[in-house]
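Field reference: sequence -> structure
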Amino acid sequence: MNFHKRLRNDYGKDCLKNIRLLEKTGIKQSRYRNHLRFSLHCNHHNITPVSLHLSSSVIGSKADNILRRAERSLLNVSIGQVVQKLKHLDNEKDRLGDLIFRASPLSADDKAEVKQRVTKSEVKEHDTCKQRQQRKFTRLVEKKEQQDKRKFNNNIAADCISKWVKNCSQRILSDPELHVLARGLNFAVTEDEVPIVEFITATESACRNLPETQANELRSKVVNLQFVELIQDQRVEEDEELRSYDVSALFTSVPVDKALRIVRSRLEQDSALGDRTELTPDQIVRLCETCLKQYFIYNGDYYEQLHGAAMGLPLSPILCDIYMEDLEQRAIATAPHPPLWWFRYVDDTPCKLKKCHSQEFTDHLNSLDKDIKFTTEGEENDSLAFLDTVIQPDRSIKVTIYRKSTHTDQYLNFSSNHPIDHKLGVIRTLYHRADTVVTNLQDREDEKAHVNNALVKCGYPKWALDKATEPKTHKTSDVGDKRPNKGHVVLPYIKSTSEAIRRTFSNYGVSVFFKPTRTVRQILVSPKDKTDKKDITGPVYYIPCQGKTVTGTGQCK
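Structure field:
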């Protein structure tokens, strides 16, 4: 007699129904597990499954990039749904197992045979699906390689290659080498890594020439956009965790002598230094030493800073960043179990590492340099705060806006004596942060509602909110009407007067930035000792001689 028929005769239809459901559930598990592995492989190799391919009638590289990002997002969503489906199937299998092996009157032999049959069907389905998914993935990889090759070799005819590439050596060049050389020596190759140090240096340099409000806006936008771009496709598995590392008092802890030795070494290894400056590495280091000597007065006594870089000194961020870059390279290279990714901004670093290696890596970081001490913060409620973001690992990572418990939602009051551009800039910055940092659509709408409520409490009228959030229209003008930029000036803001002066400056191609003249902070807060007027050194200036010089002396009459 058939095994299933015997079970129905001996134990009833309900028992047989549960056993069949258990077999089907196990088969579904095998299929979904293989599908999950296939999707993870596609995600890792930057391959889009055929079912997620998107197309559009809009032509152009920007449209293609939007479609590719959308495909990646859909793949991540699909992976998350498969994970949830597997959890549901696990629960369903446990429930059916309890009904069959604990609550049913099956004999021990029948229970053993049921388990054997269920396992056999799962293994058979697993092997079949695995082979099918492997073949499908192999076809996708081959197709991608062919597309990349066609994309690389397009628009270069054979006669052009022979014209543009002359091989004067005895070595025979391969086709890929010929196609690379045919693109010319000015062809730009995509960087392997994002040049984070250069971005930070350029951002801080630009911020020095901007008013404080605009500098903070620029710094926030650049850092958050870069960080979101880096982590948007990252995933956190169950045995991994997110952790943030922060350096205690970075500027005043960095040993200047060690940092300058690193600077000297970098300069000596820079073969292109002579193209940018006539100064030698020794001269540059001596200039840095001179700039880093800082003196201050306290209670009438003069002091010299002996250790660390001075806060507020333009050279300090660059020097500290160079020192930290050298330290982190040594830390990651020598760590027994380095983090899976490590993204540092100045002294704050989020990273992903295995849970079992987090304490080991923390101890390793703090053993490298006696002057630099790292503090660390792990996940709290499945989230990690970094800059203006919260990283929430649910296998995939989503980003929202992070606010400390002490955050009061107090922004520049609309009645403040600031130019209207500054006030509208506050609105645009907060909305821009929501649009670019927050990755989930519902979270983005919630953030905008929160911003609206906060700005209304700060006195912002509806017309200002509408004006700042309306789409920008770019005015077209004749090329001949454009005046070259001849620099910029920072003027104190006096309502009506300052706007008129700016219009005058703009007629001569000079950009104007405004700064408030009297703020509450300037009136009430005095962190530094006031210097008596008699102790203030006057300006040092040079007046060209317009008269005749006395013969032999070189001095004016």
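Note: Confidence is low (pLDDT under 50) at residues 188-192, 550-554.
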